[in-house]
Amino acid sequence: MTDLLNAGRSQKKSHLAMLNITGPIQPNLPPSQERADQFLKVNQRIAGEIISISNENVVLAVNGVQIVAKMTSADQLALLLDRRFANFVVKEIANNQITLQLASPAQNSTSQKAAANNSIGLALLEQYGLPADAANLSIVQAALNRGLKISPELINDMRQVLEAVPGWSQTDVQLATAIKSAGLPLSEGSLNLAQNSIKDVTSNFINLVNQLTETLNRPGLPAQTQQMIRSTLSALQNTLIQSGGSIENIEQNLLISIKGLGSSLENEISKLLTQSTKEYPGSNINGILFNLASLRHELANAGMGRLVDTIDRFIEGMRWTHFVNVEPEQPLAKGQWTQLDLPITFGFNALNQVQQYNVHNLQIRVAHEEDSEEGSRINPDYTRLVIHVDLNEFDTIKVDLSIVSKMVAAEITASNNEICSKASEELDELKMGLSNLGYTLKTSKIELGNTILEMDLDESGKFLPTISSIDLGV
C-alpha cells in the first residue's frame, strides 16, 4: 500500500510541475472552464484536487474537469497552501467566474475520504494495467469504502456484472459492493434481486392476503383457481404468528411460520427434483413459495395482472431474505447470523380481516459459531439470539440474549418508559421460561434506547441490510 501511495504522489508531482501557474490567472485559461456551469450549481458541495494556487485563485480538478475558481477571501486561499484535497461550497457562478468557500471540517471527512480513495484507485488501476475510466474508478472507490481487497479479478468481475445492467448507476455499484462485502455471490441475478425486491415482509404479506381474499370473492372464478387461492390463504394464515394464545400454541405457530417462510423457492424446487413422488405424495411436498409460484402462473394465464404483480413482490422479497442467509463465500470478520422477518399479530385475526394496523414485523437473528471442521453453525450453547418486534407504528422492543453454556445474559431495550415498565414486570416470567428450557438467567438489563438493528446506509440514502448469515436449514 505504501508503494502505491508513493506512486500516486510521484505521479501527482509531475502533474503539478506541468500545471504550475506563476502569473495572474485568467478565467479562460483552462479550456474546460466554459463547461463548469454544466455540472456546478450555486450552494453545491464539491470535492476537488488542488493543482495550483496563485494570487486569489485556485486551479482544481473536479470530477476530472480542470477549473479555475476564486476563493471568498485571502484567508480561505491561505488554508489551501498545505492541502492536496479539499471540500468546497459553490457560492457564486457569474461570467465564467466561480467563487468557492471551504466547507466546514465536519462536512469535509466523507468527501476527503472519497478524494483519497480516488487517488488510491488511480494508482491501483495503473498498477494492474486496467483502464482508469469512470467505470473502473467508481468500482474501486466503492470497494475501498467497503473495505474489500482490491484485485484485477474483483474489478473485472464486478464490471462484467454491472455492464449487464442497462444504464447502470452509482447505486448499482453500491449494491454490488454490498453483496461482495457480505461474502455473497455476485451475479446479474443477485444484483437484479437486490435492485428490485421490496424487502418489507409485513407490507408484502398484508397486500398479498388482502388481494387474494378480494380475488376469491370475484364472480366467475374457475373452481380450480378458487381452490388454489383457498389453499394458499390457509398456508399464509398459518405463518401469521398469533401472540394471544397459550405458550404451546405460540411455539407451534412460530415453528410453522419459520418453516413456511424460511424455506427458499430454490430449496423447494430442489426437493422436487431430487426426491421421488412416493416420499412426497401430492401437493404436500410443496412449500408456500412454490404454491404461490404455481398460483401466479394460473393467474397470469387468466389475465389477473394486478394480483400477479403482488405475488411477484412477495416472492422476490422472500427470495432476498433467503439469499442473504446463504453460506458466505469466505468467513466474515464481523461474524455470521441467520435473520428472518415474520408477520405477527397481537390477538387472533380472521383471515379476511388482515389490516395494516394489526399485523407487525417480528425479526429473529441468531449468531453462528465458527468451527474449523464443520464451518459456521448455530450452537445453542454459545450464541446470541436477538428478537426485535414492532409493537405498533411507533413503538418497538428488542430482546438480546447472550448464551454461554446454558447461562443467559438478557438485555432488553424499549422505545418508551411504559414498555420498559411492562418488561420489568414480566422479567420473572422470562426467567421461568428460560429455566423450563434448561437455561439460567444470570444477568438482565432493561433500558430505554434505540432499538434499531445494525444497518448499512448506501450513498443514495437507501438502507441496505447488514448482509450475513447461513441457510435456515428448513
Strand order of the largest sheet: 6-7-8-11-12-13-14
- Percent of residues in beta strands: 15-25%
Please estimate the helix content: 40-55%
**Helix and strand composition category:** alpha+beta
* Rg calculated over all Cα atoms: 28 Å
Average the pLDDT over all residues and give the rounded result: 78
Reported for the largest beta sheet, the result is: 7 strands, mixed
Number of domains: 3
Helix-strand blueprint:
Layout: H1 2-19, E1 45-54, E2 57-62, E3 65-71, H2 74-78, E4 85-94, E5 97-102, H3 105-128, H4 134-145, H5 152-162, H6 170-181, H7 188-196, H8 201-216, H9 223-239, E6 241-242, H10 247-262, H11 265-274, H12 288-301, H13 305-323, E7 337-345, E8 360-367, E9 369-371, E10 375-377, E11 382-390, E12 396-404, E13 407-414, H14 417-425, H15 427-436, E14 440-448, E15 455-457, E16 463-465
Parallel strand pairs: 3-5, 6-7, 13-14
Antiparallel strand pairs: 1-2, 1-4, 2-3, 4-5, 7-8, 8-11, 9-10, 11-12, 12-13, 15-16
Helix pairs in contact: 1-3, 3-4, 4-5, 4-6, 6-7, 7-13, 8-9, 8-13, 9-10, 9-12, 12-13
